[in-house]
Please model this.
Amino acid sequence: MKKIEAIIRKSKFSDVKKALHDVEVNFFSYWDVTGIGNEKEGHTYRGITYSTADIPRRRLSIIVSEPFVERTIKAILESAFTGEVGDGKIFVLPIEEAYRIRTKEKGKTSLN
Model:
């Protein structure tokens, strides 16, 4: 099992959610987060300069069994892509064990 964490643009969340459902990843958690990225300059709107140092993003946490790892990553890469600085990051971490509290199942069956 692997934990896939992705930090994406908030504007791409709907596209990523649909892409994940299309590859049968039907459960994940997400949070609104703020980070600091490579964009250093501010943006000017109607004569007022706004800082872009703090960048609002959405963080997804997805636990999948081995057969779903590559398709999950591919779905996120394709659906979150804009080609601009700030598209996000994906991290893959090993998971030692998972348990379903209700049934006390463990292992990959607890993910279904």
